[in-house]
Amino acid sequence: MTREQFEPMAKCWRLRAYQVAQAFGIADEQADDIAQETLLKLWAMRDDLERYRSVDALVVVIAKHIAIDYSRRKPLVRLDEASAQLPIADNQADINIIDEQEQQWLLSRLSQLPSRQHQVLMLRQVEGRSYEEIAALLGIEPTSARVILSRARKWLLKQYKEREQNINSDK
What we know:
This protein has 171 residues and is mostly helical.
């Protein structure tokens, strides 16, 4: 395929790759980067594009894989950012101290979760993503995302119950 043949189709392919990246919840600037990288891969494959039944489908697959790779490299929500999103009551000084202690305890337990459980929990609870979005971002099945989230929640619940039991036994 020559440059003259590639360029007119590249505009449509770029738009499609951009849309795929945005469907993964990727911001505009990064989605544009993904679309550009997709076009670079297509250009490198330009001599073999004729053997594909649908180059549009190939564009979607390439953009999807690049978007997944990008989301895996993207840093997760940091604990200090997550703590800023956790509500703190402010009616009384005592309540504030207790809530702050609860928050610190929770943040320390979150940091002890295995990496994948922490990722899924933050994506679901902090970012509010669906199981399908989480699965797409992490390259896993939606059922796996549910299981991982369930395990993280069970572990946190167990930790919380142990803490409450220790607090009650100290009284």
